[in-house]
Design brief:
The chain has 480 residues and is an alpha+beta fold. 36% of the residues lie in helices and 25% in strands.
């Protein structure tokens, strides 16, 4: 199918991604892993695709490919050739060998494009393959992205009993470490159903070619009655030049990092709290919590009245949306409740990070630049001899939970998080006394400090009227 071969330096089979999601039977959180499909499961995987994918994928379902013996044999032969590349990935629940999900990954080479017009006897298989190749060729992937290979797929499937648990998203997310290990800069796939298009967009895939199915029919593709509107070629670029930090695949997500006791919100009774990874399905709620609380409390934002400038509010919201993709942000819950008690928008700052963030809003620009100024003055990369560290852009506790030491415990949770992910330092610009004191309690030291009056002299844009804190501090803590 292609001249590409899996690098000998990449162990096989190996685990590419681990995560937590709901069990299909108990609805308890359990661990899952996405790994290479082992050779002894090749036929099981083909059977899974035959049983589920052919009945779910819009074109195959419309043309009743599952009821076509010739077509069934031909498409299964395609999958058998695909798995020989040793790129396909399978999802298992920890402790089980049941196939939860599959992605029939394959590497497509530039020279293969001229050879891939295989003849099929089945009209249904021929229509499915020809439509897929039409979308791929229209994307001009080799020319546009200047690559000789890209990671593609001939089918993504999740077992019906495990759907609506975000598994497709996590299976697609595993393509990033896989591409990095293989040295492949691009992943591109034709996604024919919203059930795969939406997860792909969550992971970062972008629309490259979008065609309405009724327009494809007018162009001569015999596709039958397709129940969805769009067919999409979507692409994900993988940066190999700046190999920035990514969360280790062997660190389950989401994980609980700290448990502690503190007073309840409405009484002096001691109750249990947990500090854990912010789950993906709470990203937007967490960001709105910060919009509703943090930008009114944080000294710089409050002094600039950032909340009164919609463009700046949208700017800071967009930044937080980028940061949560690191999957390192932490949230605090009271045990037995899903109410957000507190948040720390933690992420990993890397020396290799590209400086391509575009700030929206004049007031957010002034606050952001002041924080960057402090970070540069602190110069923790050189001061502590690290190439990355756990940073943060926002620590917030819900008003009704304040005065209970919650901020201290959220900051303390950075220690086990850093240890698990191999980070040797955590460092943050703390702009308020209410965060500086908890940070000192946990063990943070001052890396750089400046009075707000002196900060104003350094740059007239860094004037923060009415700020109550005396100092702004860059504080750091080594992780042993």
């Amino acid at each position: 199918m292609t001249s590409w071969q899996r690098p000998d330096t990449t162990p096989y089979p190996q685990v590419w991604h681990t995560f937590q999601s709901l069990d299909s039977y108990t609805n308890n959180l359990v661990r899952y892993r996405v790994q290479d499909l082992p050779p002894d499961r090749f036929e099981d995987a083909v059977e899974h695709m035959r049983k589920y994918f052919l009945r779910d994928e819009p074109i195959c379902a419309s043309l009743r490919l599952a009821e076509d013996p010739v077509g069934m044999r031909e498409i299964c032969d395609v999958w058998r050739r695909v798995v020989q590349q040793r790129c396909a990935v399978v999802c298992f629940q920890e402790g089980s060998d049941e196939i939860v999900g599959l992605n029939m990954l394959t590497v497509v080479s530039r020279e293969y494009q001229a050879q891939q017009q295989q003849q099929f006897a089945s009209p249904a298989v021929r229509a499915f393959v020809e439509c897929t190749l039409y979308m791929t060729e229209k994307g001009q992937l080799f020319e546009h992205f200047s690559v000789d290979h890209f990671l593609s797929a001939w089918g993504l499937s999740v077992h019906p009993a495990y759907r609506s648990r975000g598994l497709a998203t996590e299976i697609l997310r595993a393509r990033v470490p896989l591409c990095k290990a293989f040295g492949i800069r691009l992943s591109a796939t034709v996604f024919s159903h919203p059930g795969s298009q939406h997860p792909a967009a969550k992971v970062g895939f972008m629309d490259r070619v979008v065609e309405r199915f009724d327009e494809l029919t007018k162009k001569g593709f015999q596709l039958g009655q397709i129940p969805v509107e769009f067919n999409k070629l979507m692409t994900l670029s993988v940066d190999l030049d700046n190999m920035v930090w990514t969360r280790p695949q062997n660190v389950p997500y989401p994980s609980v990092w700290l448990t502690f006791k503190a007073k309840a919100a409405d009484s002096d009774e001691l109750v249990n709290y947990v500090v854990q990874d912010l789950p993906e399905d709470r990203f937007e709620e967490a960001i709105e919590h910060l919009i509703g609380v943090f930008i009114y409390d944080e000294p710089m934002c409050r002094a600039k009245k950032l909340a009164e400038q919609p463009e700046s509010v949208e700017g800071i919201r967009e930044m937080w949306r980028e940061l949560v993709q690191h999957r390192m942000a932490m949230v605090c819950f009271q045990e037995g409740s899903d109410e957000i008690v507190g948040l720390n928008m933690t992420y990993v700052s890397s020396k290799n990070d590209k400086e391509d963030y575009v700030v929206k809003g004049s007031l957010w620009q002034e606050v952001f630049d002041a924080v960057v100024y402090f970070s540069e003055k602190g110069n923790v990369y050189d001061q502590y001899q690290v190439t990355e560290y756990l940073a943060a852009m926002g620590l917030s506790v819900s008003p009704k939970y304040r005065g209970r030491g919650i901020a201290t415990e959220i900051l303390r949770a950075r220690i086990p998080l850093c240890r698990a992910t191999g980070l040797k330092l955590t460092s943050t610009v703390f702009t308020a006394t209410g965060s500086q004191i908890p940070a000192a309690k946990v063990g943070f030291e001052e890396s750089f400090a400046m009075e707000y009056e002196e900060l104003a002299k350094a740059n007239p844009r860094f004037v923060f009227p009415g700020v109550q804190a005396k100092h702004c501090k860059m504080m750091s803590m080594k992780i042993e």
